[in-house]
Amino acid sequence: MPYLDISAPLSLMSQLKREVPEAKVIATGPHGTTTPDWIFQKSSDFDVLIRGEPEYATLELAKFFVRGEGDFDQIKSISYIKDGSVKHNISAGLIQDLDALPFPAYHLLPMDRYLASGSHYNLPGRVPHSILVSTRGCPHSCTYCLRGMWGKQFRRRSAQKIVDEMEMLVNDYKIPYFYFIDLEFCLIKPRVHEVCDEIIARGLDVSSGCCGRLDSVDEPVVLKMKQAGCTHINFGVESGSQDVLDMVKKGINIEKASASIKLMQEHGLHFNAFMMSAL
């Protein structure tokens, strides 16, 4: 879930514009995707706002600003100020082939400085880590969820591509821990088995964690994830009241949730329960 307070990124954009006024500042994220006009009201320190999945729009913007290629008015999924008002180019829609996206440019990042710690990752100290995306989208209808960037359609990368990225990070950057930031890593059980089987087959000595729903795990999934190095799952429980869960369209039964937690405990996997106040 994104933070409601966006003062930090707005401050960063303002600082960038002050220190490098000729730079083109591009903003993206769930707030700008769902309420782009509001973002422009909050700040004028960026040049372009990308709505939704940013990869292809970013590429087209780079071609335009760096090489002078393309037509700015035809770049899909961007918003910007023109003639004193906010203009929204047509949306590109969701990216269907996630395997077509290249790996992030890890060589441009100080990978040794990304250290995970704390109960969210079930780690005792500060450990080198990398976040990974294996799927996008979520078909569920929880009323409080801001999934605007990724949509309702569930799309997935192949197990081979996911583990290719993990193996590269292990070999090139000695990363021992991975956290999958998918909205719902465990949604499709056969897919979970495929990813875990690929990790096991390659002999990767890594640990990992993810987010999941309590109704998406069963004993075979928990056992296979543990065999592949998963140490914990962060569950969105939200409330202990069935009435409240029904009201927010969580689609989870309290009894099933309790059974899933007991299953995790029986097999020695750590879990966190995300709870929401004032529901």
Topology record:
Blueprint: H1 7-19, E1 26-28, H2 30-34, H3 36-42, E2 48-50, H4 55-67, E3 78-82, E4 85-88, E5 115-118, E6 123-132, E7 135-136, E8 155-156, H5 159-173, E9 177-180, H6 189-202, E10 207-212, H7 219-227, E11 230-238, H8 242-247, H9 254-266, E12 270-275
Parallel strand pairs: 1-2, 6-9, 9-10, 10-11, 11-12
Antiparallel strand pairs: 2-3, 3-4, 5-6, 7-8
Helix pairs in contact: 5-6, 6-7
Structural description of this entry:
- By secondary structure, the chain is an alpha/beta fold.
- The protein contains nine helices and twelve strands.
- The protein has helices at residues 7-19, 30-34, 36-42, 55-67, 159-173, 189-202, 219-227, 242-247, 254-266; strands at residues 26-28, 48-50, 78-82, 85-88, 115-118, 123-132, 135-136, 155-156, 177-180, 207-212, 230-238, 270-275.
- Strands 5-6-9-10-11-12 form a six-stranded mixed beta sheet.
- A hairpin with a 4-residue loop joins strand 5 (115-118) and strand 6.
- The longest helix is centred in the middle third of the chain and has 15 residues, at 159-173.
- It is globular and about 60 Å long.
- It starts with 6 loop residues before the first helix and ends with a strand.
Keywords:
single chain; 279 residues
Outline:
By secondary structure, the protein is α/β, with parallel strands linked by helices.
